[in-house]
Amino acid sequence: MLLRPFQTRTFRKRMLFPLRFVGAAFAIAAASGVFAAPAAAANSMQPSQYFDLSHWKLTLPVDADGGTSGVAAELQPSQLTGYSSEWFAMGASGTTLDFKAPVDGATTSGSHYPRSELREMRDPDNDNVNWTLIDTSSLQAKCAVRQVPSSTGKVVVGQIHGFQTRPLVKLVYRYSTSSESGSVYAVIDPAPDATSTVVLPLAWGIGLGQAFSYEIHVVSSVLVMRVNANAWVDYSVDQKWAGIGLYFKVGDYVQASGSSDTDGGRVAFYRLIATHPDNGLAITTRSLSGAASNNAYSQTLARSGGIGDASWSVVNGRLPGGLTLNSDGVLSGTPDPVTTDTTYYFSILVTDETGDTAARNYALTVAAPS
């Protein structure tokens, strides 16, 4: 739980960490020895080059001094441009955002467990601006859990959290050493003052390192969830939650504490998109036509609903080299040459004049010369 008294512990107020520069980017000089030889070190790309982080802030498993004895520190959205560290970095493949948290890490007030986790910010400068049950809000993600804490085997990979209160729902991955596979389930607090939880199973048989997708939607006070192509699971939310601001969280929130700096959680995200299509906003272009090396390409994306003019942007992934998406939704350019047919994966977001958003995932194949 993130409480407002600790929001002053950011770079904006004072320099929290000793910084070391890596090219144009900086990283936290955190405690050494945690998760030795991280795979992300092999890739020089920064998370903000592949993921739009302009509406997320980051909680780290280290305190203001880079240690673990104080309160977990936060980075605001503006501070995530060019940021990379041991706890938050692109994976070696250059296609995943890797989160890491040791069980001995620093924690936020109100939690005994460490995390490396993003928190949605609808207004990047004001975390009082959140959404409510009556809104339409969606979180879509694809991730792979690569390590779990040895004592519990549990990591939270997604949440809907209440402002200055507890989570409405936590999406938990739990790995069993006996079966050598994992399950995903939702833990719901029926009310902000509830003394017990509701547990809803969503998926089984997901191994460590195996990618899975999940969706969490809130539509008119109903939670709608699923993992992969499994059946949708619905849950009607008690109206005690109606007056509380809500926000999404994604990352690696280990459900364990301890004294080890090598035990903990690692989660890799291939994509993450939070949208709020309250005005019926939707992207209606279902797929993109193929492109060819060194041949001019142009396709205009279409949308329905929304209010006023809309702007378009890429929020996950990378376009083929040579192509750009302008703010009017025109994808154009001349693709860079490829030696074999190559498919690029990315997500596009449309935003209307009220700030409502909708997104769609795309794959675009660039054909090599015949």
What labels describe this entry?
370 residues; Immunoglobulin-like; eight-stranded antiparallel β-sheet; 44% strand; globular
Main β-sheet description: 8 strands, antiparallel
Mean pLDDT: 89
Taken together, the total number of domains comes to: 2
Name given to the CATH architecture of the largest domain: Sandwich
Would you tell me the structural class of the helices and strands? mainly beta
Low-pLDDT stretches are: 1-42
- Number of H- or I-type helical stretches: 0
CATH topology tier name of the largest domain: Jelly Rolls
Q: What portion of residues belong to β-strands?
A: 35-45%
User: Order of strands across the biggest sheet?
Assistant: 4-3-7-16-9-10-11-12
Question: How many strand elements?
Answer: 26
- Cα radius of gyration in angstroms: 20 Å
Q: How would you spell out the order of helices and strands?
A: EEEEEEEEEEEEEEEEEEEEEEEEEE
Shape: globular
What is the terminal-to-terminal distance?
56 Å
Helix content: under 10%
Tell me, what is the CATH class of the largest domain? Mainly Beta
